[in-house]
Amino acid sequence: MNKSLQYLLISIATFIFGYIFLKTAYFSSQESPFTKEIVLIVLGTIVTIAITSALLNKQSEVELEKEQRVKIFDSKSDLYFDLS
């Protein structure tokens, strides 16, 4: 099995179990509004971390592709000047 697929499956499973746990904690804290707010803060933090992680991963992919294109261009340029 591919490593990225394994990480994706682990992430999905963690997200599902975490969602179920936090949803249960949210509805069981009906008596105390402070506890409910803490659960909502945790949810917001998790969502912020997930979005930031996704953005950083995509930015890293774009930067790597850019570096590869620059190296290919340099190779083509060197070859052109060697042939000239």
Q: Could you characterize what this model shows?
A:
It is a single chain. With 84 residues, the protein is mainly alpha-helical. It has one domain. 92% of the residues lie in helices and 0% in strands. The protein contains 2 helices and no strands. The radius of gyration is 23 Å and the shape is elongated. The model has no long low-confidence stretch (mean pLDDT 84).
What count of domains describes the coordinates? 1
- Provide the helix percentage: over 70%
How far the N terminus sits from the C terminus, by CA atoms, comes to: 48 Å
Quantity of strands, as a count:
0
Rg: 23 Å
Q: Assembly state here? A: single chain
What is the residue-averaged pLDDT? 84
Number of distinct helices:
2
Order of helices and strands: HH
Inertia-based shape: elongated
Strand coverage percent: under 5%
Write the layout of secondary structure elements.
Elements: H1 3-28, H2 33-83
List keywords for this structure.
single chain, 84 residues, mainly alpha, 2 helices, elongated
